[in-house]
Amino acid sequence: MIFSNKDLKKLIIPLMGEQLLSLTVGFVDQLMVSQTGEAAVAGVALVDNINRLIIQIMAALATGGAVVCSQYIGAGRDKQTKKAAGQLELVLFTFAFIMMGISVLFARPLLSGIFGNTQKAIMDFAVLYFTVTAISYPFLGIYNSGAAIFRSVGNSKISLYISLLMNVVNILGNAIFVLCFKWGVFGVALSTLISRVIGSGVMSYFIMRKQSPIRLNQIADYIPDFSLIKKILFIGIPSGVENGMFQIGKLMVVRMVTSLGQASIAANSVSYTIIDFANIPASSMGLALITVVGQCIGAGKKDEAKHYVKKILLWSYIGDWICNITLFFIGHYIPTWFNLSPEAVDIATVVLRAFNITSLFIWPLSFTMPNALRAAGDVHYTMIVSILSMWIFRVGSSYVFGIILGFGVLGVWIGMFVDWACRSAFFTIRFLNGKWIQKKTLVN
């Protein structure tokens, strides 16, 4: 067996810590922004949906690189592994730099076009936050590519330590810029930018040092190799399209929420921030599956790949149950930390409890399992299922339950649950029929 239980724990536990720290940045930012008022919370909430879109596409490209590197590692081809890692950094940085330019230059037109006639106070906060955080995209791209490279060799501790550093910097920045200087939304955005600049610098150091298992210390490592870029994009583009369309669909849903008023916008945003913590175990194990299944496929050990998927999926469910049952009982307290109106707190409490109950049964099947399919190269199936489910079920059901039937934010979340049920059904069928494991490896 390629991975012992000890190996899996060494990979997964740091990933859980990294996910926790990564989410803490957004959580702290939301808390700090709430000191400026509900309009600021709503403005930042709108931008966070766009930022998630960009970050999810970067994550998809990083997944492409991680799959290629993992399969080369499984096949024992070190030279190609190093070259693929360099191409991953090149692709991610290029994409992030382009997105930064577009976002900074066209911040207000983009936000106005996506979210329509939002209140002026909310829009002004949104434009400010969007402009500053967009400058951080290239630095986040460098960090994400480095984290994916280290994960592909089974080392997730590096990204955990750097994420911890970024959190410390972000919290200190918030304390100085928001609590001391009273810079509000600008202070929160500036803290995020500085933390990502520092994180990218430290990640680059670890990638370039002699002890790095995949050392990138020469300009030649970054010269475009289109055969490798094509392999990265073979995984990355379908995953990016999938994640991009998924986030665009969510933006459409958020636009529905904006028509429900400021309290609904703020409650919806805070609820999304909170639920991410409940998904940490299952989400982390999904990242681990990319490394584990990728190396098994590269080594030609398909039966082992199936074994690990079942084992890690079981662990995902155990973690998901622990987190969601806990959140169900304490979730009504957490929204009160964000300086929300009583109406917004009530809305958030209802949707959080609905999420906790539903997630117990289908979240890991919807979001953890498909990473195993992607790591085996079955990216087009996951893309098609995710896109169709998002637009037919999430967007369509959200409009029916939230707007037509008048259930408000809860109706929008019911639409999300319908989407999960569809995804989980199709991904389970694909796993059981074995077609996902029959794809040609990328290292041939």
Q: What is the H/E order?
A: HHHHHHHHHHHHHHH
Which sheet architecture does the biggest sheet show?
none
Class inferred from helices and paired strands: mainly alpha
Q: How large is the radius of gyration?
A: 21 Å
- Cα-to-Cα separation, first versus last residue: 22 Å
Strand content: under 5%
How many E strands? Answer: 0
Count of separate DSSP helical elements: 15
Mean pLDDT: 91
C-alpha geometry: globular
Poorly predicted regions are none
Helix content estimate? over 70%
Please characterize this protein's 3D structure:
The chain is an all-alpha fold and 444 residues long. It has 15 helices and no strands. The protein has helices at 5-33, 38-75, 78-105, 107-115, 120-134, 137-152, 157-180, 184-208, 226-258, 262-278, 280-298, 302-330, 342-375, 379-404, 409-433. Helix 2 packs antiparallel against helix 3 (78-105), helix 2 (38-75) runs parallel beside helix 10 (262-278) and helix 10 (262-278) crosses helix 13 (342-375). The two termini are 22 Å apart.
Topology:
Layout: H1 5-33, H2 38-75, H3 78-105, H4 107-115, H5 120-134, H6 137-152, H7 157-180, H8 184-208, H9 226-258, H10 262-278, H11 280-298, H12 302-330, H13 342-375, H14 379-404, H15 409-433
Helix pairs in contact: 1-7, 1-8, 1-10, 1-11, 2-3, 2-5, 2-6, 2-9, 2-10, 2-11, 3-5, 3-6, 4-5, 5-8, 6-8, 7-8, 9-14, 10-13, 11-12, 11-13, 12-13, 13-15, 14-15
Feature tags:
444 residues; mainly alpha; 15 helices; 83% helix; globular
Provide a compact summary of the structure.
The protein is an all-alpha fold and 444 residues long.
